[in-house]
């Protein structure tokens, strides 16, 4: 569905995307994980054929992005970061009008719009104005809109940013269903749980480059230990404690508010902490996550 080789995007002197390679097969949910400014949206815009690459080769749906943009766009679904719905119109009208961009006949558009509202569980709101919808409902409507041209590939830029947990789960559940229907999904996210739950494969981006790639499980197994012990001390300066804990685990990481011990045996690391005469205010043993992978690879946390 997507093949990029040596993809580069420069804005003046600034290189936003710095020579990335990606391959996305059909039916996969492929995620770009990374902090602000990593180059995720820029990559999505190139794949969406709205921003031409400065250099490199980019093929989407077997076509060349440089020369076949309009043909590619006709077969893509796009869910932008900010909702661009027409709030003055009702839900059905939003979908039907969008269908016109694709030259879909009115009768077909209305039928599809009804089906799609059903798919995103908004049928009972068909005649309401968009301005009356919650954030989660708007997202679902935007997802419905992205499907009006029956796309093979749907691109979602931070599909659940700003939504409450329940609204996020509703969006995820619909995206799972889309995937089951064989639609390929490409998404960007700041959220490790979203990446873990939705994505078959991930690239971790940082500073315009790909820092790592794999399934969520592979990334965790390759880059971090199985367990993590989080220690919080009554102090303003956790780095002093990190020094005292040198060698207490496979790796010791310090954040402003805690020390992280990366270990394959949480219990013995906790004993080691006490053995060194240290008394943390709190101790949390947990499984390693993508957030830990990210910290390892970039030295930063996902959500600043
Ligand atoms: N149109 C533009 N003109 C100049 N610089 C840009 C433009 N778009 C993006 N950039 C810069 O390119 C870099 C990558 O931005 P991009 O929006 O792709 O990051 P991102 O990973 O999507 O971040 P976010 O999570 O905040 O959306 C940033 O340094 C940004 O300031």
TrEMBL record:
Pfam families, alphabetized: ABC_tran (PF00005)
Family according to the record: Belongs to the ABC transporter superfamily.
Membrane topology value: Peripheral membrane protein
Domain of life: Bacteria
GO cellular component, one term: plasma membrane
The keyword Isomerase appears for this protein: no
Keywords: Antibiotic resistance, ATP-binding, Cell membrane, Membrane, Nucleotide-binding, Translocase, Transport
GO terms of biological process kind: response to antibiotic
InterPro entries, A to Z: AAA+_ATPase, ABC_transporter-like_ATP-bd, ABC_transporter-like_CS, ABC_transporter_ATP-binding, P-loop_NTPase
Domain ABC transporter positions: 2-232
The organism of origin for this protein: Actinorhabdospora filicis
Main location class: membrane
Molecular function, one GO term: ATP hydrolysis activity
Name of the protein described by the UniProt record: ABC transporter
Subcellular localization, as worded in the UniProt entry: Cell membrane
